Amino acid sequence: xxxxxxxxxxxxxxxxxxxxxxxxxxxxxxxxxxxxxxxxxxxxxxxxxxxxxxxxxxxxxxxxxxxxxxxxxxxxxxxxxxxxxxxxxxxxxxxxxxxxxxxxxxxxxxxxxxxxxxxxxxxxxxxxxxxxxxxxxxxxxxxxxxxxxxxxxxxxxxxxxxxxxxxxxxxxxxxxxxxxxxxxxxxxxxxxxxxxxxxxxxxxxxxxxxxxxxxxxxxxxxxxxxxxxxxxxxxxxxxxxxxxxxxxxxxxxxxxxxxxxxxxxxxxxxxxxxxxxxxxxxxxxxxxxxxxxx
Length: 294
Fold this sequence. Notes:
Elements (H helix, E strand, L loop, with lengths): L2 H26 L5 H19 L9 H28 L2 H8 L2 H13 L6 H19 L9 H25 L5 H20 L14 H29 L1 H5 L5 H12 L6 H18 L6
Helix pairs in contact: 1-9, 1-11, 2-3, 2-8, 2-9, 3-7, 3-8, 4-6, 4-7, 5-7, 6-12, 7-9, 8-9
């Protein structure tokens, strides 16, 4: 297996798991606040990474530590807080479409910071096709799109923050450190920044909630799967494919959500969702340009 194929598989695995986390989050939100879920899942993820690879990351420079800290702030703390707060102001369909703009932001930042020159015609055409597809999936042929300045701006900021995180992880991958060590260091900084937000967002420890096996199982899935495993596989994909090519896989999160809803929740796929899925996949392949191995 070539390393580029491995990179695409790592990105697909990551997106598949992230696309299914809405079910676990939905279940937990009955008795957990968004900040509770965020803190517990990344704490579990950090503990898992320490157990899997206990060797400490040593001999880093001050500039490298600043980059790790910024990655933790953007990819762990700010992104999820902005997304969760946005959901309290605006509809999930709006947020899903707006956050899917992240690959476009990543391409722009990569042009300026990494000099990757990714804004080619195939990328633009693929982006337009994917956004139309995602809109069809999210709104499902209805007229539910309503602008909410606060929620939609927060979602836009979340997309920008994730783009910054993707560029930072590409820069970090060039340091040559073990991916698990790097992800663990990012989690440490992310949780440290998160501690500042616990009081303002009314964090509740209340470990008795985990006596419910459903809650325990879902938080473990988010901690081990969506956090520990997925952040490692995402960072691996970014290291191999680059920030832009990896971020393009964000387009198919709504597709995974539709398929998961069909299988687990027995929801029906409408014609609009089907057309949107096809357009999104076409956009992914056009933007990705699998012939380019660089």
